[in-house]
Specification:
The protein is 64% helix and 8% strand. It has 28 helices and nine strands. The radius of gyration is 28 Å and the shape is elongated. β2 and β3 form a beta hairpin. The longest helix is centred in the middle third of the chain and has 51 residues. A seven-stranded mixed sheet has the order 2-3-4-1-5-6-8, sandwiched between helices. A two-stranded antiparallel sheet has the order 7-9. The protein has three domains: 162 residues, Rossmann fold; 83 residues, Orthogonal Bundle (Helix Hairpins); 359 residues, no CATH class.
Length: 646
């Protein structure tokens, strides 16, 4: 116990098993997101008050497959298990994939941790015509087992009751012992004999990690232990692939347990439509057709047409241009006159007339519709399917299907997507995705404005799209060829196709908009103030003047120099600025400007995160590479379109 009636609860499990939704149902709105100490991995914490006597501190850990970790996120989850001394660990699994996920349950039990097995998505298992003998499974594992359906809040009260029971040590654990082969068992016994002190996990569990050469396990054991003797003894088994033998024995035991506790229910039938959709969305041809349909109707029509078109026009024209901005200009003119402080708040570049207008009238509608559509795709299970479909293609440029997640997130916000690259397996893949995010992926506001500008002409939009796609592929091929490091592999849980629940979609959308409001909107205000300082000191005039030259070489008007500069402070600023001057540009200039603006440097927030994630040297290299590349390609595209007679 961590205090009088206060208990610490960890949510542990694979990605896409419903941990976050269970976290929300247990804790409600009391949640905070922060980096785990000493890492760049974000975790979510929340507090739940149960009655008048109990309080739960709940931690939603990053995706976790195995105690032998690969990604930084998995390593952080293991650190949390080692360091936080939880009163309860909820191992959340996808009920219909219990055979594949139960070996991790066995690892947690072997570590002598207070585990509750949570069979989430239980309705999907039943739809497949399967039933679980719950009481028998509890008996065989020796721990509480709870069935839940997080999307319907089913089983939450029972789960909370079990949490309190385990935390108060009212549940008598009798966890099973994993039976390994003779070779493995003898090796474990020998290492256990060499371990003298006590640790957060059992000596038996620690021995299996040491035998597999786990770095974190060696860091965990004290210096006074016979480290050299342990290392020498375990080293011989690491070379003999003992990890495979251990994994095989655990999986065999999981299969035996499941075989005794799961049976088919002939009265239940799998939904024919869902089964068909599952197959079609993973089909190499029909799957891509589904991707095209979603991209067209979900992003082009909904985000580009409705968000960047209808909503932006409604808010910017009817609200800001006709009501708010004239009132703000009049108000500050009366109290500040023609002083330099007038332009800080009002005028063409004021905090309210520019920063607030861009944030709420141009960017917010686009970001809102994007996050809403992204949440729908995520909850439907289709996002992972896109990863699977694109895995083979992305392997050609050194990436894996897992990299689809940060790349698609980049369409929402490059800053957020750069942070998410830490989930990728290798340092090489993280670098490649960071570079491609900085160069080729437009954020939601930029994408929405471009869709709004070019959406009226399908040919203009296709020129922009093909240009960015070609640059993405060429850059990927070149980077893959000349970047050293370990190639990426790919493994990801495939959830079934589901009908997204409106409540869940709205919760996710709202949480992301909350992040936008607290993290991004203030940057618009700071950027407006910085622009004001740059204006009155003439520094921006000089930088704008410099940028007009490459803009002219690409066939663009002088005004684009200013837009490129402001785009660095926020990509949204650049996109919104381009939206403002569309009337003075030809169709060819709009296409070229959209392409160059997309390829131009990442915004200052994304650049700052790049430095944090990839280091200063790498970030500066990416930054300095992107600037000339964007303008050179703009010049080439301008010439091609001119020859084409566009």
């Amino acid at each position: 116990m961590t205090g009088n009636n206060k208990y610490k609860v960890l949510l542990v499990g694979n990605p896409n098993v419903g941990k976050s939704l269970l976290f929300y149902h247990i804790t409600g709105k009391y949640a905070s997101v922060s980096n785990y100490p000493g890492t760049t991995v974000a975790i979510t914490k929340g507090v739940a008050k149960i009655g008048s006597h109990h309080e739960l501190e709940v931690i939603d850990t990053p995706g976790f497959y195995n105690m032998i970790t690969i990604t930084e996120e998995e390593a952080v989850t293991k650190r949390i298990i080692f360091e936080e001394k939880p009163d309860v660990i909820l191992h959340v699994i996808d009920a219909k994939n219990i055979e594949r996920m139960l070996p991790l349950t066995l690892q947690l039990l072997e570590a002598n941790l207070p585990v509750i097995l949570v069979l989430n998505m239980y309705d999907e298992l039943k739809r497949r015509g399967l039933e679980i003998e719950l009481s028998h499974l509890e008996h065989d594992l020796g721990i509480p087992v709870v069935c839940t359906i997080a999307t319907k809040k089913y089983g939450i009260d029972n789960l909370i009751s079990r949490i309190i029971s385990v935390a108060e040590k009212r549940y008598k654990f009798q966890p099973i012992k994993i039976g390994y082969s003779t070779l493995v068992e003898d090796a474990i016994t020998r290492v256990v004999e060499l371990i003298k002190n006590e640790y957060p996990i059992s000596k038996r569990s620690l021995a299996t990690l040491l035998l597999q050469g786990d770095v974190e396990a060696y860091k965990l054991i004290d210096k006074e232990e016979a480290v050299d003797e342990i290392s020498k003894f375990a080293g011989g088994f690491v070379k003999n692939d003992i990890s495979l033998k251990i994994a095989y024995d655990r999986h065999r035991m999981a299969v035996d347990i499941i075989g005794e506790n799961i049976y088919e229910n002939e009265k239940k039938k799998v939904s024919g439509i869902k089964n068909l959709l599952d197959k079609l969305t993973l089909h190499p041809i029909f799957g891509f057709i589904a991707v095209f349909i979603i991209l067209y109707f979900g992003f082009y029509k909904f985000v580009g047409g409705f968000g960047a078109g209808t909503l932006v026009d409604l808010i910017e024209t009817n609200l800001f241009e006709e009501i708010i901005n004239p009132y703000v200009n009049s108000f500050f003119s009366k109290i500040l006159g023609d002083s330099i402080f007038f332009s800080l708040f009002a005028g063409d570049y004021g905090i309210i007339t520019l920063g607030v207008r861009y944030a709420f009238a141009i960017v917010l509608p686009v970001v809102s519709t994007f996050f809403l559509m992204f949440s729908v795709i995520e909850d439907s299970g289709f996002l992972v399917r896109i990863s699977m479909l694109l895995d083979k293609i992305l392997k050609k440029i050194g990436l894996s299907g897992r990299s689809v997640i940060p790349l698609i997130l980049g369409l929402g916000c490059g800053t957020m997507a750069t942070v998410v690259t830490r989930t990728l397996e290798t340092k090489r893949e993280r670098y490649l995705v960071t570079f491609l995010l900085a160069l080729t992926i437009p954020c939601s506001a930029q994408l929405g404005v471009i869709l709004g500008l070019l959406g009226g002409s399908f040919s203009m939009l296709m020129i922009w799209f093909v240009s960015i796609l070609v640059i993405f592929l060429i850059s990927g091929f070149v980077l893959n060829k000349y970047t050293k490091g370990e190639q990426a592999t790919f493994f990801m849980e495939i959830p079934p196709i589901r009908m997204p629940k409106l409540g869940n979609v709205m919760v996710k959308t709202f949480s992301r908009l909350k992040w936008y409001a607290f993290e991004i909107i203030p940057i618009f205000i700071y950027a407006s103030a910085l622009i004001w300082i740059g204006k009155i000191t003439k520094i921006f005039d000089f930088l704008t003047y410099i940028l007009t030259f490459p803009a002219k070489w690409a066939g663009l008007p002088d005004k684009m120099g200013e837009i490129f500069l402001y785009g660095f402070f926020r990509r949204d600023f650049g996109a919104a600025g381009l939206y403002d001057i569309q009337d003075i540009m030809t169709n060819k200039q709009l296409v070229v400007a959209s392409v160059v603006l997309t390829l131009f440097v990442p915004c200052i927030a994304q650049f700052a995160v790049m430095i944090k994630e990839r280091g200063l040297k790498t970030s500066i290299f990416i930054f300095l590479s992107v600037i000339p590349f964007a303008f050179i390609f703009g010049m080439i595209l301008n010439s091609i379109l001119g020859i084409w007679g566009y």
